Amino acid sequence: MVLRQIQRRGIFTPRVLEAFCRIPRHRFVPREDWAYAYDDCPLPIGLGQTISQPYIVALMTDLLRLRGDETVLEVGTGSGYQAAILALLTRQVHTIERHPALADRARKVLEALGLDNVSVHVGDGSLGWPEAAPYQGILVTAAPPDVPQPLLDQLVDGGRLVLPVGSPGFQVLQVWQRSGETWQEETVLSVAFVLLRGKYGWKEEDTN
Question: 52, 79, 167, 190: which one is catalytic?
């Protein structure tokens, strides 16, 4: 998986590749899907959510440009796989999930793997997690229609926000970097993610 799906697509950061070698991806998917855990595709994890394609997880991680001493926020815990990768690359990870059942399952897997620098919270991810802000990096694994302002506000100066933005039919992966009270934005590539629900995300009535 690391060689064929990640490194051959242009991700060469040694710490990132090592993290993907160390985290057992199959532990984060339902047992009946273990045979497909390392395939080049997303997989369902229940409640309409997915674990992202390995390359996309690696790309978003690499775009944060982590050094190892950061406190980061993940919006959309899902299976917990992205949080596990971040745990090996940062000092502290806060991750927030709106589905209590998914949050509980992810928490148990992370604890079983001994990743004690991850705090799993239940709540509206579009609001971020101001209790632990500011963050050197924020990574969002579901797509809002526009960039939530609370997430931009919770970045430190120089901090980076990586997220998909767009409609149910078309999204782009973006990187926002804070510089004082302004933010520089870069569009990376087209992607397909589940929708981010919440105050600054999609409402149920918007997509029915």
Answer: 52
Residue pLDDT, tens place only, 151-180: 999 999 999 999 999 999 899 999 999 999
Q: What is the pLDDT of residues 117-128, one digit of tens each?
A: 999 999 999 999
How far apart CA 165 and CA 154 sit, in angstroms, is 18
Question: Hey, what amino acid is at 198?
Answer: G
- DSSP codes joined into one string, 141-197: -SB-SS--HHHHHTEEEEEEEEEEEE-SS-EEEEEEEEETTEEEEEEEEEE--PBPB
Q: How far apart are CA 100 and CA 41, in angstroms?
A: 25
Distances from the Cα of 203 to the Cαs of 33, 156, 199, in angstroms?
31, 29, 8
- Verify whether residue 52 is a known catalytic residue: yes
> What 3-state DSSP class applies to 57?
helix
